[in-house]
Amino acid sequence: MMEEVLIHSKFNTLREYFTPTLLPFSSQALKKAEAIVENTDFPSRKNENWKYTNVNGLTKLSFNGNNSASLLEHQFSKTAKRIVISNGKMTEDISQISNVKTNWKQVPEKATEDPFDALNMLYCTSAIEITFDQEEHKQIELVFEHTKNTFVFPRIYIKCKKGAQGTVILNYQGAEDNSSFTNVSTFIEVEENANLTLHKIQKNGIGAFDLHREIVNQAASSTFKINTFTLSGKLTRNDLWINVNGENCDTFMNGAYTLKGKSHCDNHTTVDHKVAHCYSKELYKGVIDDRATNVFNGKVFVRKDAQKINAFQSNANILLSETGTVNSKPELEIYADDVKCSHGSTTGQLDEEAVFYLRSRGLSEKAAKELLVKAFLGEVLEEVKHDDVRSYVEEHIEKHFEA
Amino acid sequence: MIEIKNLHASIEGKEILKGLSLKVNAGEIHAIMGPNGSGKSTLASILAGREEYDISEGGVTFEGKDLFELSTEERAREGLFLAFQYPVEIPGVSNVNFLRTAINEIRDSKREDPISAKEFMSLVREKTKIVELDSSLASRSVNEGFSGGEKKRNEIFQMAMLQPKLAILDETDSGLDIDALKIVANGVNSLKSPDNACIVITHYQRLLDHIVPDYVHVLYDGRIMKTGGKELALELEEKGYDWIKAETQVG
Quick check: B90 and A357 CB within 8 A? Predict the structure, then answer.
């Protein structure tokens, strides 16, 4: 195989800004990551997976803010144990939290071929492992807060052990004026009979780039649920990949996004049904205002012997302006013959008749639209069984219409 | 209350209202009757603030203000209410939630404090009784899955909650069976006071058996052709609209 050395690759331009990780990864893992980053350039439009998302703007950022003090204070969950990672650094002693590990002899080698995952490892700012091993339900909230010109590259490992239950809130908060680069790799193992819920909130500054990937493995009879809320930021990309490896699993993927200005949000999700007798349901909904753009690409694979699969997927968008853009592509690839699957995608405007009706009762146009948007996103929020998270997102929707 | 003077209005180049004049005072109920296509619903739409009509001549003053200077929501806050001929279904928006928002926006425009939860709920209880609306319907999504009769009763319920100065009922009787018709009429009658007024737009006389108007106007070809007392409605019922048409052509 010919190895092309990309001297002028954008990765090489970008990495000049970063300080190599101090975390103890194995030299083999680092070498592999190094090779991936060395030999890859930024994804271009020719790459089907990145057709509508252009990350070239990353090279225009500067990164001199990682030593700034934390300025933010965010937490939704009043009940969860909280860990704050401020500008990439842990702010407190968390050794008393028994199921969280941040001190490593060697960080796990888990990695993908994704060059941004490799970049994450080479310049990793924190590696955090959360383990749930009890039937009693536990909650952990990770708050990542960042100010201007910072790079935040966490690597997160979540294990929900056999029969255990847990909830993790991943709360990404950037200062409003911030132009940070958040690049997160999250590896999730849901063991037999385990039940894991993830709430992910992305609320970043108008210049912020957020690239996230979650790689999930589900063992037999497990339940995994992820709720993703993209509330603000310049460019957000979520790659969610769920391998359903065991039978009798339930998988739920919910997402809501509120985009305005020039925000760009891209949700790429894959659920891979490898075995029979499983259920998956996906619902992503969002509103797009101003010149914002949204990309949705949802793949459902049903492998050859994965019979009796019920898989449902839906994406719905409301354009609030004439200049917003939506690229939605739901995909089903089914190789089994006894399955029940459906997918659908809709993009439209707010019902003008409904707006008029509400206005004729005294509501301002703004209040009418806000009420209709809340109702539209309400279907996703109903799936969020965590009151603090749900009310946080609801409040955000109200604020979204204030500015 | 409201004075419409020589109103000319068209849509997509077609003139619908051709010099309509009408004056309604506080305490009065006016019925506007007329055949299909005479401009009844156009009048209701224009008064409520639909923007697709061009007003070429004439004007409307509502409580001394130029109505056309006010947006739809400002008209509502000034006390104008339209009961829709086809109430809109709004999935996911609860009836009471939206009414509470509406009441508070109206109060806010008058620099009044928002309604308290307790006060609001007792108002809901009181007003649902007037239109015999099941309280579970009141808290469901606006009109979603409501029967035709329930939708119309919900319009009157909203009217009762908002307590407008001028209510315009646009063919509220269409599609109602006699029981629903009575409930709607009772609702309207019980809200009548010396301080408010009502314009009842209808195709048929039967609603006027239950809501007794002070004046009946016949709208034909975009103008009020004839005005009389409640007995005019009976005459129309008996003779149809043709004699009005004939009279007009002679005149």
Answer: yes
